[in-house]
Amino acid sequence: MPFVPPGTHLLQGAIDCHVHCAPHLSGRSVNVFGAVRQAAAAGMRAIGIMCNFQNTSGFAALANDELGDLGIEAFGGLIMQPTAGGVTLEAARTAIGYGYGPGTGARFVSLPTHHTRHVATREGRSPAFLETTFSVPENGRIPDPVPAIMELCAAKDVVFDCGHVSGREAVALTEEAKRRGCTRIRTHCSRYALEEIEAITALGGYAEFSFFVLTHATQVGLTHVDEEKHKIASNSVIQDFTPRLRAAGDRAIVSSDAGVYLLPPPVEAFREYLMLIESEGFTEAEIRRMSAENPARLFRIGGASV
């Protein structure tokens, strides 16, 4: 009999909403079609394609058009980095409509990842670079045109993603997004304080925890916003995630954040991650909620709703 890696059953019906399989300045372990085929072979339900350089809704639409018979759904969206048009209402509007007809456009619109003051400071970027980055001021006032982008996400029923900002900023953004009518909000909480995670989820936001920051890929300089390479400093171990996952409760989401050449292909990375989570005492039902049910609700997979 062929060898079946332990934990393979945890992938059945799972959704990895954070896969970097699009073309990139850093090498990829798999392309878009390969990522979809491998996920389908593992019995997964969907994958979300992300890219720090461009809107991925077109890649997802193409994958669904070509590989739809595999029974798996791909979806994409926009990270509003400078190369993808920046933080503008027009870039968000274009991404939402970009595909092969109604319903094939972006499922999420994200504030920048590596073009935020929070990340650029951690990377040791120059003062001139920092001046160009996105941030929420200490007074919590959300800068324009973000409120209008939030209202667009609410009107089009797509996810507003807070991007890679600090916990303080994420709480302020979640509060404003809720005021603007957003019911689908994603935050990236791997390093946030417990009280920040609790505040975000109490407001109705989902808290995502990605495998990447637990891996050896953080030891290598990579490109994320331009050709300049930077490490994502991390001393994280799975035990650091456990109280954060518990704090997020029934609003937690887990993802691989894989696709870079230094890591196994996303399906294998996700299997390893789910097994790590299981080793921390989470039940199969809890893992399924974080890896299948919550992503389906957030991203409207198969018609699921929040």
Automatic annotation (TrEMBL):
InterPro entries per UniProt: DUF6282, Metal_Hydrolase
Protein name: Amidohydrolase family protein
Organism, scientific name: Roseomonas fluvialis
Source lineage: Bacteria, Pseudomonadati, Pseudomonadota, Alphaproteobacteria, Acetobacterales
